[in-house]
Write a structure and sequence with these properties.
Elements lengths: L2 H19 L5 H14 L4 E6 L2 E3 L2 E3 L4 E6 L3 E6 L6 H14 L3 E6 L9 E5 L3
Parallel strand pairs: 5-6
Antiparallel strand pairs: 1-4, 2-3, 4-5, 6-7
Helix pairs in contact: 1-2
Amino acid sequence: MSENEISTIVIGLAIQIHKTLGPGLLESVYKECLFYKIKQRGLHVEKEKAMPLISEEIKLDCGYRIDLLVENKFVIEIKTVEILTINHLAQTLTYLKLRNYKLGLLINFNEALLKNGIRRVANNL
């Protein structure tokens, strides 16, 4: 399954969750719901996936954790903030670059209309 196909599925699931729960809940609530829905679709998904930094062949645990990693290639970063900032985008892009993943989603569930809170993030290798 391609990253674009995963993206389409995840966006649809996120919209379903947002329609059911609405905005304003904790990030962890949306993360658990999306994790469950992705698993329910039969996709491999990992939650709070550790992302060590490898420098000079040394693995350094710097505390990086991907909210959700789908099919070992698609990053999902979940936020519940008033507005997404360049720092949120940079965080997601960092995760993509550390492992050479091609595509991810930055999703802010704290929007009245979820489509306004979804950003596709691409790693231009």
